[in-house]
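To close the section, here is one more complete example, presented without commentary so you can practise reading it yourself. The ligand is PR8.
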Amino acid sequence: MMQHKTETKTILQKENNFSEWYNEILKRAEILDIRYPVKGVYVWYPYGYKLRNLIYGILRSLLDKEHEEVLFPMLIPEKELMMEKEHVKGFEDEVFWVTKGGSTELDIPLALRPTSETAIYPVFKVWIRSHRDLPLRIYQIVNTFRYETKHTRPLIRLREITSFKEAHTAHASRADAEAQIKKAVALYKNFFDQLAIPYVITRRPDWDKFPGAEYSTAFDALMPDGRAMQIATIHLLGESFARTFDIVYEDKDGAVKFVNQTCYGISERCVAAVISVHGDDHGLVLPPEVAPIQVVIVPIVFSSEGKSAEVEKACFVVCEELKKAGIRAFLDNSDERPGAKYYRWEMKGVPLRIEIGPRDLRNNRCEFVRRNDFKRMQVPLCDVVPEVERTLKEINDCIYERAKESFFANIHKSEGAMEGLRRKGIVSLFLCESERCGKEVEERLGVNVLGEAVYEDEDEEREKGEGGCVICSKEGKRVYVARAY
Ligand code: PR8
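Output:
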């Protein structure tokens, strides 16, 4: 690990060293304990789980407007799992099986859900009777299991995904299902905007769509090492699962029709994105909205003076005022030296630190230190609450601006041939629709084809246009490619 000793702390270098930085941050900021003895399976620390819950709180509040939360079983009978052919093909190598109860072989092997289509849709069949039952929109946040054979990584590529948010919808018509896809895209945009995470939205190429879907739309964020990470997907299932599981409804005119379906998912990769995109050499940098502690108050007392009752009291009063105003404030009146406290709360990404010392008290003021840029300002004690509210908003804006700057600096447009394209970040180039050309680009450049940009007005303007495929020169469209997680 690259480390620089400074007076009170050890700094972690994020640039050019992302992978080590990431693992070290998970440990030092107490997000995830990676010592659990099963590959691809990890333990949430309390602090990490609080962060996770605040992030998922935003997701829930967005979903709850139009979806209802449910909870389906984790075990799926073999027969159900195997019913949809495309779906099975996509998942068969990734399924964990339960084959014994105690020492007795089970009659029917049970799969640990890799995702829940085949658990949920047989139940949709009995829930849905008439057009009055539609649209049906449900979601659950559950653990799912995938026997990933690629390199596993905490929060990013898991064998037990602990926070799989999956939404499933059924509609009377294809048009309704497509309208739902647009709503889901808008919902996810809103979600990632609130996390200050920039993204590109693309239509995945046909060979990379979700098994059983007609088409898949994906959100990709950019990690600090220049690799893209798929942070959300939205799938139009059409009638394929409805035909397989016989999910029909009686329309107004008495006709019996198949429903049209969509599903869309997000995992704890969204937490990984928050950590990776915003963090710096001092640790986490959290958007205030999701920071478990938004403000930490540190009394400044010098060792010669010992504890000062007045300073402690002033800190306590400030902390209580902030809490009363609904701000997640914490008073660190432990015996540690201020330097050690700064280090801990910087590592944990607390957006704002308030320092109060004897001299501040004499002047009826305190000092604010912003986590994102360490900017200091003096604030009269009587203005603390409104100034904190204002400063937290400002911090959020700064974090977002910085993230966008670095994101757009890493999106390149290529006009010509493939040579010289092996750059960091996301590159757009012309490609025809054939799988052969797509796979060749992937192989030669060591990238993944993310797909054609969708739904982003500015992007569409910027990226529109047709040109010769970089492989076969036939008519092609502009698509994004990137090395991907
Ligand atoms: C569906 N069915 O399943 P999806 N570790 C961490 N995150 C992961 C992993 C993994 N091993 N695999 C996928 N993800 C559909 C939609 C119900 C909901 C994350 O879709 O297979 C990725 O960000 O595309 C992925 O976009 C999301 O879960 C949904 O998984």
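Once you have examined the tokens, check your reading against these statements. The mean pLDDT is 94. Residues 412-482 form a domain with the Translation Initiation Factor IF3 fold (CATH 3.30.110.30).
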